[in-house]
Design goal:
Layout lengths: L12 E2 L6 E5 L5 H14 L6 E4 L2 E4 L3 E6 L5 E3 L2 E3 L2 E2 L2 H14 L5 E7 L6 E4 L12 E7 L2 E7 L6 E6 L3 E6 L2 H4 E5 L9 E7 L3
The chain binds 2-oxoglutaric acid and fe (ii) ion.
Length: about 200
């Protein structure tokens, strides 16, 4: 066996959820590689803070974002329309590894920077029309670990929590977006910055 070519450490853990498929791969990237990507993305990304409109009220989003893609199709959510920038060499490298593993070719990546525990991402599902039905979303995390919550849309008793660690990959597939909401809650703990990348196909 060639230890260096081994993908053994990338064995996914499947969350025990019904009506959807969520896989978690803790050390998808080594800690060293993940730290390198964290630094590169921190400095290379033109982070912006958009305002979102929810229930007719406009608020600055509680995190910074950036959108990259290999087409120029706009992506809209919560009243924001973002136009993608061209993929950078860093993002192409990460995308290539994620695509090999997930066997999906993504067009687009949304980057989120959570500067501290006050930054968050409220309950939502990634169910925008331009993602099509049963989208595969590949979510990569670098930097401080943060909690990820899932709750079922109709069966209120069904909830899951998982910590998204440095260098991890979370894959959401099947009917997950149709049946579940997810969030990154605020925390009162002192936490360092975290960067998350969600790869998507935008039609
Ligand atoms: O930061 C995360 O892990 C989640 C990001 C997310 O849900 C999104 O951008 O749609
Ligand atoms: Fe999401």
């Amino acid at each position: 066996m060639n230890l260096f070519a081994s993908e053994e450490h990338k064995t996914p853990l499947q969350l025990p959820i019904k009506d959807g498929t969520v896989l978690y791969i803790p050390s998808f990237f080594s800690s060293e590689k993940a730290s390198e990507y964290f630094t590169r993305l921190t400095t290379e990304t033109p982070w912006q803070q958009d305002s979102i409109t929810l229930f007719g009220k406009t608020h600055p989003q509680p995190r910074l974002t950036a959108l990259y893609g290999n087409n120029s199709k706009p992506y809209s959510y919560s009243g924001i329309t973002m136009l993608p920038k061209q993929f950078t060499p860093t993002l192409k490298e990460i995308k290539c590894d994620v695509e090999k593993f997930s066997e999906v070719n993504f067009t687009t990546v949304l980057l989120n920077l959570y500067r501290n525990g006050s930054d968050s991402n409220g309950w939502h599902s990634d169910n925008e029309k331009e993602l099509g039905t049963n989208p595969v979303i590949a979510s990569v995390s670098f930097g401080a670990p943060r909690m990820f919550h899932l709750k079922h849309k109709t069966d209120k008793a069904l909830k899951h929590k998982i910590i998204l660690e440095h260098g991890s990959l979370l894959l959401m597939k099947g009917a997950t977006q149709e049946n579940w909401l997810h969030q990154i809650p605020k925390t009162t703990k002192r936490v360092a910055p975290r960067i998350n990348l969600t790869f998507r196909i935008v039609y």
